[in-house]
Task: structure prediction
Amino acid sequence: MTALDDLGRRVSRWWGRASEHLVYHFAAAPGTTAPIVRDSYVRVWLTDMFLADARVRAADVFPALRCSVTMDLDGTRVTTSAVVQAPPGQEAPGPRSGSLTGWVPYTGGSVGIQACLYAVKANDSLRLALDVLGVFASVAAPTIPALAQLGEQVAKGIDKVESAIDEVGDGPRLVLDKEYALTGGTSDRLTPGHLAVINRPARDFDVSRLDLAGGQLRLDGGPLDGTDYLVLELQTTRERDDWTFPELDELVREAKEAQLRNETGRFDRLRQDLLVAIFTHPGLTHADQKRVAAGMRRELEDAGWGAAARDEVGSVADLVRFRGLPAPSEVGGLTLGDLLG
Result:
């Protein structure tokens, strides 16, 4: 039994106790479609979090979010955790937004989201614990191969904090525990959209009065003051906007250096390692594995022929920015043998 398992069970228990007393609402984004297996990315985004008493008590109390996202990566369930809170000195009320996961290739199965919204005082022990966990959790997001290991390490720290909270009979202001799948119903279908949890009894609340404007949840066209709420967004895309891959970028730099030094044998080995790593990278969809690998092969070939200004490409992000990538149709039949030939 792992810390992630313990953490998941605790959140499920909190959700079971609280769900009848909370409003949960999922609003699908108009004009969007569900992710395509192995050809789309999924990301979970924090749109806003709000505490009613933060408005009254100014910076004395402010929201802090702990979120875990579980997905399938080629048949293996992988969980990553994030902790989000205002930096010291910036606790004043206002929208909080940002990525809770990077873009993760959708390889099938469900996407599980567990979230806890806490009320944190500026100098209490929970704030200090979340400060440490937040720094650690932020390391987990960028690199897909490290998600499982770092997710478990972060979970151990979070588990200690939440166990102490549970023992004294306290808990988060809001909690969420949902699974989203392609075959799900209206409220749990895996499709782009916003999910809101509101600290109001569901039986007394009309969700048709809600809307989002400027990233903030509104009721009847005005601010939803006087109650705690959390808004997350499920995002999908086939064209990612973040191409940060540190482990690939290191190989790019080493290959370029070997090429510049005319170290032919070393360059050939690094070139092969780099192209294989890109073509099989778990953080890229099948189409992007081929597109990035083909683009990088062309980049290395052009640099070898002395093409002008080729040294400006020192990473995958540089390749996309300065050279662009071939269209999926251009590389659809590309094999690893073709790439290395």
User: Anything to note?
Assistant: Confidence is low (pLDDT under 50) at residues 135-147. The radius of gyration is 23 Å. Residues 3-237 form one domain.
